[in-house]
Structure formats: structure tokens, C-alpha cells
Write a structure and sequence with these properties.
This protein is mostly helical and 167 residues long. It has six helices and two strands. The protein has one domain. The longest helix has 20 residues.
Length: 167
């Protein structure tokens, strides 16, 4: 991974206590996935357990796993993912919640624009399918994510050189 900082690391403080159940599940699965993948010496629960307990074993687990492997392999910069004990949402954690919410609200174009800060075009296209699958798995078990207005409005440079702002 290149050493530049995440453009989402400047997101203001969002306490985990303000998250809904589905959002908390996603953040905990993300933190556990990162913790077990990049810190295997830590004694952390398996990230799959929460998703399985929520009834997402068949669709959600494989989709989340594929999404995270693509992001980890192709991201432009280290992601702002916090440790399990951090009481605040990391910028890229908020970004993932936003992507999944946009997909649940049938706004794949905006989800793709948000992914553009993380991934090159080919990886973004590859990541969209598992992201849609994970968003659908959340919906299937009744975990609809709210479409929040995050405290940022990133501008991305798209492959054609056009700049667009996610509103």
C-alpha cells in the first residue's frame, strides 16, 4: 500500500454510540477483519461470528470477505480503520458505511464515486459486486443502514480527468 493518508481521515469525530445496529455490526466486522488480518498475534474473535449471528452466513460473509480482500489488495493508501476499543468511527469506516448505505438506497453511481478515493477503476469495478452483495445481505436480515450526511464532501479525480463532488 502507498504511504499517503486517507482523504477520509479528516472526518470529524463520530461516536460509535450514535450508530444503529447494522452500522455497528459492519464496523465491528471491519475492525475484526483488519485486526485478525494485520495483527494475527492479537486474540480477537473471528470477524465472521457477528455476521453469522445476524443470519448473514450464506451471503454476507463471502461478500464481505471478497470486498475486503479487493480493498486491501488495491487501495491507494492505508485506510483509517480503528482498533476494537476505539469509541469513535474512523474516516474510512464511515466511508464504508456510506458506500453500503448508498447501495441499499439504490445509488450505485454515488457509491462508486466514494470508492474512487480508495481504489483504481478496475478494482472499483471488481469491488462493486461484493459491496452490492453485502449491502443486499444486510437488507435481507432487516439491517438497513441510514443514508447519513457525512461531515465531508470529497472531490475525486475520475479517470477522464473530470472532477465531481459527492453531495
Amino acid at each position: 500500500m502507498p504511504a499517503s493518508r486517507s482523504p477520509f481521515s479528516r472526518i470529524g469525530t463520530i461516536p460509535l454510540s450514535e450508530l444503529r445496529t447494522g452500522e455497528s455490526l459492519v464496523v465491528m466486522a471491519l475492525r475484526l477483519w483488519v485486526g485478525r488480518t494485520y495483527g494475527p498475534d492479537q486474540r480477537l474473535p473471528d470477524w465472521r461470528e457477528g455476521l453469522q449471528a445476524a443470519g448473514m452466513a450464506r451471503l454476507g460473509v463471502p461478500a464481505f470477505s471478497a470486498l475486503m480482500r479487493i480493498i486491501a489488495a488495491a487501495t491507494y493508501h492505508p485506510l483509517d480503520i480503528r482498533c476494537m476499543s476505539c469509541p469513535e468511527l474512523g474516516g474510512d469506516e464511515a466511508c464504508l458505511l456510506q458506500i453500503l448505505s448508498l447501495l441499499q438506497w439504490d445509488r450505485p453511481r454515488e457509491a462508486g464515486l466514494t470508492m474512487a478515493a480508495w481504489l483504481p477503476p478496475t478494482a472499483r469495478r471488481m469491488a462493486l459486486m461484493p459491496a452490492q452483495g453485502f449491502a443486499a445481505a444486510l437488507t435481507q436480515v432487516g439491517l438497513d443502514l441510514p443514508l447519513r450526511r457525512l461531515p465531508f464532501s470529497p472531490t475525486y479525480r475520475l479517470p477522464q480527468g473530470q472532477e465531481r463532488t459527492l453531495q
